[in-house]
Amino acid sequence: MKVRVHYLGFIQNMLKKREDEFELREGALLSDLLNKIAGIYGEPFKKEVYEPGLKDVKTGFVVTVNGVLIGQLHGVETRLNEGDSVILMTLMSGG
Asked: Does residue 54 contact residue 63 with C-beta atoms inside 8 Å?
């Protein structure tokens, strides 16, 4: 199955791209997708966003699946489906 990932804010600048499309096995979880991304982009991604084996994305990042925050779903254990849209974005802060 194919899943599209959109990168916004800091992650977009870090990876120097706006989106990717990934082929995943049927029944894959969000953690499978994040592990795949970590395998491709390596240490920069692991350091800033998600280290394989962690149970959540790191502080400062928000992930949505089809526009719904993963905290309202099943976190990184959210099951993905064909055609899902995942967004990785930086939390905004200011003061």
From this structure: no
Q: CA-CA distance, 71 to 39, in Å (whole number)?
A: 24
CATH at 80: 3.10.20.30
Q: Any idea which of 1-10, 20-29, 64-73, 83-92 has the lowest mean pLDDT? A: 83-92
Tokens of 35: 């592990």
Q: Hey, what are 32's tokens?
A: 């499978």
**Prediction pTM value:** 0.91
Residue 74: domain span? 2-90
Tell me how far apart the alpha carbons of residues 95 and 55 are, in angstroms, rounded to a whole number: 30
**Backbone φ, ψ for residue 61 (5° rounding):** -125, 145
Examine residue 15 and state whether it is found in any structural domain, yes or no: yes
